[in-house]
Amino acid sequence: MKFYLIDDDQNVRNILKIIITERNLGTICGSADNGQDALDDLLSLKPDIVIVDLLMPKMDGITFVEHAKAQLPGASYIMLSQVSSKDMIASAYEAGIEFFIQKPLNSIEVETVIKKVSSSLTMQRTMNKMQNIFLEGMQPEIKPESSLPSNSESSSTLRNVLQQLGIIGDIGSKDIALVAEYLMEHKEQMNDTTLNELCSKFSDSPKSMEQRIRRTVNTGLVNLAHLGIEDYSNEIFTEYSNTLYNFEQVRKEMDYIRGKIKKHGNVKIKSFLNALVVYCLSH
Which domains does the chain have, with CATH numbers? Predict the structure, then answer.
């Protein structure tokens, strides 16, 4: 991972450099003491992860992230601040950051957050590559069998995910498990078939099975949105809101729950199932 650091305090930038380099978390491709100069660097340096302070001269961190996301949407953003206001933290997440780290910096927390963001970014890129491969009608390169998780390991991960999303007790969770395990076993993705066609392999009423899956996946979205409202830094929320689900749609569901908008967030079921399969095979 390539990191870009933005903080008007040189000491903070130095501490971050030491943590990142000495703990082999990545490389530093650039740094700046204000957001405006950083924006000028982004397109040429193309960092994977940007760590930015909230309160800075010329441009605050939230404004910077809003502009940076438009220029470099594929990067991940981590914000630093001594501010502990929930409204301010919520605004930062809504602007597009992945994590919020409180100052003064704690090296263990910084390392933990960076590893989580790196893992999430890698997962997202892996899913995008796999989906592109299937869309192009090409066969993906298959790892040697010895490097693939066993079915029992993948199934265990699958059950754990469904439990963390709060949908393990829903009748549709069994349907999701059937479909996901079939896709894992056959190394397929949902791009190769329709959900209805796949459900017909397991049920005489594929339409009913499909509806159960849709309801259960949407319940997971609602549960995830509630977790985000309670605590943006909740591990389950940060783990799945930008991998299994689309973060923009999770935010919409959060706004719906808060009464800010009248329309729910939505889920593309095929994308969810594809992401679930990739997640289970890689953990």
Answer: 2-117 (3.40.50.2300), 144-282 (no CATH)
